[in-house]
Specification:
The protein is mostly beta strands. The chain has one domain. Helix content is 11%, strand content 57%. It has four helices and 13 strands. A 13-stranded antiparallel β-sheet has the order 6-8-9-10-11-12-13-1-2-3-4-5-7. A hairpin with a 2-residue loop joins strand 10 and strand 11. It is globular. It starts with a helix and ends with a strand.
């Protein structure tokens, strides 16, 4: 069961990276006059510092670089391709993600290939995904706004257990200081809170469950994009290339933008 939980969490975090809703998009570009919280076309580049603090207060540091390069089409929908390279504590990892931007938000393609390969057929038949996309951000950001990022359930006949439920919420404006290579600057940012609710069925009694919740935050700057990430390792630790570890949910991952090139 633990292996199964890790598999479905890996699916979520890989798409969150940094990825529910369907495709309720109304266009392909931000509306005129609205903030552009996710700018950038082909060739856009970001670089972040990464810090991971575990339950023993031991810190590991490194960097993550992201570049938008090319496009790929799935089921007739075209996505931008994001290549990520992370080095933390001397360990390198690479990932590739697919996303698209519309007036309604930012959507990441949920590649379920890894899930299908890692979950036994006896369990896979009960897994239900609400969408093949993660609604990472829902525009416009307004006071009190919440949205469903992603939902995965296990269905046993007439019983549905929401194993993973990820929600997003606009948490208002907040200033962030960016320590860029050219010097420190302070910017007003939209703060977004993500909550992962994990409901785990008892393998011996599907009518019994226990629930855990984990939070993470993103700060987005108009015209720049994601300036900062911070949150529980249960959601964000793949940023450091260390994999999912539900045995240490007190670890915290943070990332801060240090350079960027918007195309």
């Amino acid at each position: 069961m633990k292996k199964f939980i890790k598999s479905i969490l890996t699916l979520f975090v890989a798409a969150l990276l940094f990825g529910a809703c369907g495709s309720d998009d109304s266009g392909t570009n931000p509306l005129p006059g609205n903030p552009n919280y996710y700018p950038g076309g082909n060739g856009t580049y970001y670089r972040y510092t990464v810090e991971r603090t575990d339950s023993n207060n031991t810190k590991q540091t490194g960097t993550r670089s992201s570049k938008y390069q090319g496009t790929q089409t799935f089921a007739g929908v075209t996505y931008q391709v994001e290549y990520d390279t992370t080095n933390i504590a001397g360990v390198n990892s690479t990932n590739k993600f697919y996303f698209r931007k519309t007036d309604a938000g930012v959507f990441f393609f949920a590649d379920t290939t890894g899930l299908a390969a890692s979950v036994p057929d006896t369990l896979l038949q009960y897994v239900k995904l609400d969408s093949n996309e993660f609604a990472l951000f829902s525009f416009p950001f307004t006071d009190g706004k919440t949205w469903t990022v992603f939902k995965m359930s296990i269905v046993f006949g007439a019983f549905t257990v929401p194993v993973i439920d990820v929600s997003g919420a606009y948490a208002g404006k907040e200033d962030v200081t960016l320590y860029l290579t050219g010097g420190a600057v302070t910017k007003s940012a939209a703060k977004i809170k993500f909550t992962l609710t994990l409901t785990i069925p008892d393998p011996n009694n599907i009518f019994q469950t226990f629930t855990k919740k984990y939070d993470a935050f993103a700060w987005l700057v108009d015209g720049i994009g994601i300036a900062r990430w911070q949150g529980n390792a249960a959601i964000l630790n793949t940023f450091g290339g260390t994999g999912i570890d539900l045995d240490d949910t007190t670890s915290v991952i943070s990332q801060s933008l240090i350079s960027y090139d918007i195309k």
